[in-house]
Amino acid sequence: MAVMLNLCLRFANQIYDFDASNKASSMRTLLWLKRLMPEVRWTMWQNRFCSDSSIQRLESNSSIRKHLISKITATGPISVAEYMREALTNPVAGYYVKNDMLGAGGDFITSPEISQIFGELLGVWCVSEWMAAGKSNMFQLVELGPGRGSLASDILRVFSQLKTVLGETDISVHLVEVSPKLSQFQAECLTGDNTQPSDGDQPVYRSGTTRTGLPIYWYRRIEDIPRGFSVFLAHEFFDAIPIHKFQRTEKGWREVMVDIDPESPDKLRFVVSHSPTLASSILIQKDENRQHVEVCPEGGVIVQKLANRIAEDGGAALIVDYGHDGTKTDTFRGFKGHQLHNVLDAPGMADLTADVDFSYLRKMTGTEVTCLGPITQRSFLKNMGIDSRLQVLLRNCPDPSTRAQLVHSYDMLINPDKMGHRFQFFSVLNRGRLAQYRGMQKNTAPLPVAGFAELDIQ
Q1: Residue 439: C-alpha distances to residues 4, 186, 430, 436, 453 (Å)
Q2: Rounded-to-integer distance, Cα 68 and Cα 80, Å
Q3: What secondary structure letter does DSSP report for 134?
Q4: Among 161, 194, 199, 457, which residue's CB has the most CB atoms within a 10 Å radius?
């Protein structure tokens, strides 16, 4: 823990101004709170960000809904996974392809949008893991689904503050993003739009130089990222990957499907398959005791790829998301205009999400890596020294309104009734990362992984 402790203390003593240019104001924070408490009616925000006329216009032009109805008519009910895939990533009208879903005008606000402290502490975590793993000459920062680029921006600012620690390390930034619109936002945020598009179907479809002088690349697939020591970040990424839903019946497990509502042929409904499907036959664990289960096989494949790379090339992965450790059942939901939205209404016009089953991800990583967590966001940020970091910012912030915003954002991040217990942190590490440490210990010392062990500042 000495490496982590020294790094946190050094970072906390760095003095630089609160960055309010692209952070959530109190209004945006309240909008996030509305997402956590959808039963509260906040008409003022609804009228501003999600007018009835705009919803009706979008719903009337739902090309994906028409496409899905035609497909079901021709081939029969489809899985929830196929429905999610079409609604979110259809190349013509998918939600992530054509919408700006982040921020006050979108459908959700993320932790990096609420406070810069969140990204700064994750930046410290990245450097801490690089140091603990032996200070590789090569350091690839990889983010899956980077949103508007706020998290990466805060992390890169930390890297700049810790130049003397990183030395001459060959650092590069690699973003996996399928949304052309979001990649444009990321380019503007991280490079000032100092990027160049690639020709044809190259693995790298955009590249440039960050504001801090680092090379940065955009990809559509994890497989295209160069091999080498990498720290992978996935913040609110796995919750949007398509899931299969299963229901236990008297005849065994059956898959929940999406079908046309016979009473309203222009609408969709859930049905339970009459017989086993391929997915229900192979995705349910033999020891499963829940009555309803959601499984994300694509998420399992992705975490396997991360685990294989970490085992072979070194590095670590930090996954942050809504989630549980194999206890929840029906978590599939939609968000539109910061309100809960019927998942089957207007596909392609709302964000669809399901809580991440970290017990499933853990099983899928295999035996060549070590997993830590999940632990709550509150615990992780407390362990990372968020209280000390807040005090540093408050001491150097003379503006009362900005100080109040800092405190309010801090509360949003760690309050158990807000984001503190809703989000979970889960890490995948090279197996040798902890084995070497434990081999040097004669007692049961705390795990030397930043964020997953209590920070003891003497």
Answers
A1: 19, 42, 15, 5, 18
A2: 12
A3: T
A4: 161
pTM to 2 decimals?
Answer: 0.85
- Kindly tell me if the per-residue pLDDT of 99 is higher than 70: no
Neighbours of 406 (CB within 10 A): 21
Domains in the chain, CATH or no CATH each: 2-76+83-245+292-439 (3.40.50.12710)
Structure token digits, residue 35: 């997402």
Total Cβ atoms within 10 A of residue 193: 10
Burial 372-396 (b: 16+ CB within 10 A, else e): bbbbbbbbbbbbbbbeebbebbeee
| Whole-angstrom distance, CA of residue 86 vs CA of residue 89 | 6
In angstroms, the CA 237 to CA 239 distance is: 6
d(CA 427, CA 451): 10
- Contact between 79 and 244 under an 8 Å Cβ cutoff? The reply is yes
Amino acid, res. 402: T
Expressed in percent and rounded to 5, the helix, strand and coil fractions of the chain are 45, 25, 35
